[in-house]
């Protein structure tokens, strides 16, 4: 993100409320987005390193724009819960999510949760600025390739097992793929042990598998799940 300092400030895009909240557990990413926000002329830049402090920060300051990663610690999709809570508290908030992986299933879940845009972390600076401008102006933003893949998934949903799962099921599947036990998953996701077991059973029915081992094989065969759904 350091290249942002080499680009001249531009005319800020219109936004319903000013201010931006950046949520990521990497200090370098936080610093990079702060530089971008300042370059874009956004007044009020707030930062958080996890979803709990991120939501508290949002609740306190109510910025018009939220930029959040999707993966924090071992929980590959915890950013989705932040997006939902922000959207429930302030429906007009514009949200841009970012990830290291270009998984169309994850991108679709992000949009369903209430984000306006999705962008890759390793994309060019120009693309990040384009995404920021679009979301601030109230438009949606998806990289063309991901938008195309989402459309393909919609047409062939039955051939993509992950499209049948809820966000919570994807979280549990991701952790199963990492070798976590039911007890460990319950602790990581702050769930009741029985809830983890029943959700896993529901996934087996949805995916038509007869054992936990088969479920884990599906997790390991899907790029997004194998990488942590999604990692940074």
From TrEMBL:
Signal peptide: none annotated. SMART domains: HTH_LUXR (SM00421), REC (SM00448). Keywords: DNA-binding, Phosphoprotein. InterPro entries: CheY-like_superfamily (IPR011006), NreC/VraR/RcsB-like_REC (IPR058245), Sig_transdc_resp-reg_C-effctor (IPR016032), Sig_transdc_resp-reg_receiver (IPR001789), Tscrpt_reg_LuxR_C (IPR000792), WalR-like (IPR039420), WH-like_DNA-bd_sf (IPR036388). Residues 19-136 form the Response regulatory domain. One of its GO terms (molecular function) is DNA binding. The modification 4-aspartylphosphate is found at residue 69. Residues 158-223 form the HTH luxR-type domain. It comes from the Bacteria. The keyword Transmembrane helix does not apply. This is DNA-binding NarL/FixJ family response regulator.
């Amino acid at each position: 993100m350091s290249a942002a300092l080499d680009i001249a400030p531009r005319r800020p895009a219109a936004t319903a409320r000013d201010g931006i909240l950046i949520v990521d557990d990497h200090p370098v990413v936080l610093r990079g987005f702060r530089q971008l926000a300042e370059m874009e002329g956004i007044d009020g830049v707030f930062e958080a390193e996890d979803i709990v402090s991120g939501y508290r920060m949002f609740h306190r300051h109510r910025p018009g724009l939220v930029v959040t990663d999707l993966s924090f610690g071992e929980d590959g999709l915890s950013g989705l819960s932040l997006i939902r809570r922000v959207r429930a508290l302030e429906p007009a908030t514009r949200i841009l999510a970012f990830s290291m992986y270009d998984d169309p299933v994850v991108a679709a879940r992000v949009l369903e949760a209430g984000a306006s845009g999705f962008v890759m972390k390793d994309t060019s600076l120009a693309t990040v600025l384009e995404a920021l401008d679009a979301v601030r102006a109230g438009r949606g933003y998806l990289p063309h390739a991901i938008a195309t893949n989402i459309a393909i998934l919609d047409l062939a949903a039955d051939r993509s097992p992950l499209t049948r799962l809820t966000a919570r099921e994807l979280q549990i599947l991701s952790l199963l793929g990492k070798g976590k036990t039911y007890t460990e998953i319950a602790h990581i996701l702050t769930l009741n042990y029985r809830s983890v077991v029943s959700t896993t059973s529901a996934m087996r029915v949805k995916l038509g598998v007869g054992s936990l081992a088969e479920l884990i094989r599906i997790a390991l065969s899907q790029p997004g799940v194998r990488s942590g759904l999604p990692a940074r």
